[in-house]
């Protein structure tokens, strides 16, 4: 980074491998506690014979200062991840939901942020008798305090969401973890992948988070707020190592790995998704174009996906068998509440089942 006011910064960039990245960039302070928590969760799910999916969700930030005032962000509200997590849970999976702090979360997403603000559903009433309605939050009759009543315009929907949320909590099948920066994300992704590796093929990875391709190594960051007095600011960022490669080859070689490819130029979507599949050798790339992502996605996968035993030398030959499958939903149906994630997860569960049982065509 260079600006007249930050002489301590350097302008040389280096190419980080995953190994050199983790050797030089600091781990998050809570990493050990996070690992202990997720290990306990995975052990419980393994005992119950459940499959586990890691869902990553939301955008990663790249801070520009150590005492951070400014940062770069990646686009993502967390809708894809939070919605998908719900469908995985209802399909019987246990979910590790690794998400950007304050982004959308499963179940609460229906009533958080600007969508259906929850406070709009609450009424204060000065009544002596408790409401008969099942959604009354307090049954105090003698209190002078007003009771709070929920008045949803769609109580059936609220009831469905609340029931599913409570059932998941009772079953203990949802474990949430948070990140803000791309550095936290990478450390957590590596740690969770290594823990989940004990489940072998019963683990799925659904990488919907929007991960920054560039970052500022700690040694190049300004300690204090970058000053603006001396003209323009030039920042030279280093490339974030492609962690998918490490996931496939080292951290979780048996896992069923699904990555997302986001493009704004739709003509690049399929070629880039195919290239990612060929480069990393994982199981599925889901391509989505920014503005059409709620209505259509393309699955890019090998007709016979590589198994853990697959000789990696064969990947080049296998590239000729790469297939594209489009999933589409009508925009009007989407407007009426249908979510494309329902179809995405249905298809992935089907493919994962085939993957766990055999290595035949999926
Ligand atoms: O949350 P929403 O608002 O609903 O938006 C959802 C979404 C559009 C963000 C989501 O569907 C999506 O596409 N997520 C992936 C975005 C992304 O990072 O795309 P990419 O083309 O930059 O990266 C492709 C893949 O490479 C990603 O799966 C990522 O995990 C992986 N990657 C990225 C950077 C990096 N250094 N190493 C990686 O391995």
From TrEMBL:
Database matches in Pfam families: DFP (PF04127)
Domain DNA/pantothenate metabolism flavoprotein C-terminal per the UniProt entry, residue ranges: 180-293
GO biological process, any: coenzyme A biosynthetic process
InterPro entries documented for this protein: CoaB-like_sf (IPR035929), DNA/pantothenate-metab_flavo_C (IPR007085)
One term of GO molecular function: catalytic activity
Stated family: Belongs to the PPC synthetase family.
Protein name as it appears in the record: DNA/pantothenate metabolism flavoprotein C-terminal domain-containing protein
Organism annotation: Phellinidium pouzarii
